[in-house]
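Propose amino acids for all 487 sites.
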């Protein structure tokens, strides 16, 4: 029987991004059947020699070798209870397969004995009978062991796959993650609120597969909901591969406004006039937002609260840790408090939001071009991190304009993306004049093959955004392919 793999599992096995496989499928270099890839077809496209260097084998071996190491077990392995359930489910599958094989064995043995009884006495039939017997023997011995199928079996125990309906999105659950945590890490816009089993917003219906509760929850599911297969994604993990039904947010209009009291984790310098503010939400009250959105921050002052609104610079896939890049600004009371040193770790900051529609449109597979100037890098960073975690595109171009050479305050991060990822281009620009900088950026992007096919995101000071918009529209980019965030 052929072993069929989902796109994400196949990508995992051969150690490439899902978008790479999607590109190969589009180009006719990899065949699929009903959206699945057969193990043999994957082996043809990625010869066996390659999987040893792909990371998949290494990963499985590392788990085997280090499975008694406490840190590895905590980080990568599911809880003992979940692991036991998964092994039990695989054991049942194997027992059923064994019964099927035994039935075939008996059938073939009976067929062979009848043939011998009917024709065995005729010497002319002996060679044909021997060939038939050989052929049946080979069939019963089974197909050659398939390395991909074997690794896939191991991965199904360690990282079951979840398919979400109706979107068709897929993700895998690793370690102790709940269905919700794993989905958010994979960049899905799943519905949720508290993250700890009290609000009920993360309800989903399990259409196929088995789940295991991994934490208690206060929210009461009705008997009818339970019988229809509803679970709280924040409180359950998967025992087997799952198919679930839930509605993902399609845009900012689906994300409710929230007010959360957070704690300052750290304030660090990103440059002379820029600070990174790291806030952490309570475990039980995380901020649900889309990459590229903004939030208002409020902090107490004896003379009255101070407020400021900033783009969120971190990825929604880590919804407890919120990062903001704040510039020194005498006209911004919140920034003044931050730069005065009065906002220390442990202090409370109220976050209200999210707001704004500078989010990925999410047409999968389209190239993504980002143009940022100054602190416009903050929402762009969130978009890039989200797009990478969601495996949203095979091609990225990130152009960042600074008014002075030291202005690319996270250049190392950009270089790391470019070095680690095929199809990620990092283009730093330096010009004190926003309009000249925007013109130079657009001129550089126009030279790219994928310029006319890309979705383009522009963020920064108003003068820069308007200049870039003018250049991009002049270069023939349709307004529908442009998202603008003047700050
Ligand atoms: S997110 Fe609130 S119950 Fe799951």
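Proposal:
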């Amino acid at each position: 029987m052929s072993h069929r793999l989902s796109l994400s599992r196949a990508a995992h096995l051969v150690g490439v991004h899902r978008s790479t496989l999607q590109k190969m499928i589009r180009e006719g270099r990899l065949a699929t059947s009903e959206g699945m890839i057969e193990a043999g077809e994957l082996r043809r496209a990625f010869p066996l020699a390659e999987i040893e260097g792909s990371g998949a084998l290494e990963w499985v071996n590392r788990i085997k070798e280090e499975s008694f190491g406490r840190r590895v077990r905590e980080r990568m392995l599911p809880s003992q209870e979940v692991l036991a359930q998964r092994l039990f489910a695989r054991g049942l599958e194997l027992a059923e397969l064994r019964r099927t094989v035994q039935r075939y064995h008996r059938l073939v043995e009976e067929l062979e004995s009848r043939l011998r009884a009917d024709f065995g006495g005729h010497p002319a039939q002996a060679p044909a009978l021997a060939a038939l017997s050989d052929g049946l023997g080979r069939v019963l011995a089974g197909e050659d062991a398939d390395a991909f199928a074997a690794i896939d079996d191991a991965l199904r125990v360690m990282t079951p796959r979840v398919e979400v309906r109706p979107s068709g999105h897929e993700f895998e659950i690793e370690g102790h993650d709940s269905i919700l945590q794993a989905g958010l890490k994979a960049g899905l816009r799943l519905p949720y609120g508290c993250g700890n089993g009290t609000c009920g917003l993360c309800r989903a219906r399990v259409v196929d597969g088995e789940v295991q509760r991994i934490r208690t929850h206060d929210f009461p599911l009705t008997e009818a909901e339970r019988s229809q297969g509803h679970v709280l994604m924040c409180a359950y993990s998967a025992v087997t591969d799952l198919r679930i039904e839930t509605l993902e947010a399609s845009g900012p209009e689906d994300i409710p406004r929230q007010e959360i009291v957070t704690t300052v984790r750290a304030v660090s310098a990103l440059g002379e006039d820029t600070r990174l503010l790291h806030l952490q939400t309570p475990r039980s009250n995380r901020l649900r937002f889309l990459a590229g959105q903004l939030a208002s921050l409020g902090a107490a002052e004896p003379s009255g609260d101070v407020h400021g609104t900033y783009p969120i610079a971190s990825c929604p896939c880590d919804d407890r840790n919120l990062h903001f890049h704040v510039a020194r600004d005498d006209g911004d009371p919140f920034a003044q408090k931050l730069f005065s040193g009065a906002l220390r770790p442990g202090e409370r900051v109220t976050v209200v939001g999210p707001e704004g529609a500078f989010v990925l449109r999410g047409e999968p597979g389209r190239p993504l071009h980002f143009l940022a100037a100054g602190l416009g890098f903050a929402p762009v960073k969130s978009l890039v991190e989200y797009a990478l975690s969601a495996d949203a595109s095979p091609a990225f171009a990130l152009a960042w304009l600074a008014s002075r050479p030291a202005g690319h305050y996270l250049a190392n991060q950009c270089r790391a993306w470019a070095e680690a990822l095929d199809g990620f281009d990092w283009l730093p620009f330096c010009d004190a004049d926003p309009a000249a900088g925007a013109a130079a950026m657009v001129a550089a992007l126009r030279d790219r093959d994928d310029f006319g096919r890309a979705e383009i995101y522009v963020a920064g000071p108003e003068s820069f955004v308007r200049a870039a918009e003018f250049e991009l529209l002049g270069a023939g980019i349709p307004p529908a392919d442009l998202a603008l965030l003047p700050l």
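Confidence is low (pLDDT under 50) at residues 51-73. The CA atoms of residues 452 and 466 lie 20 Å apart.
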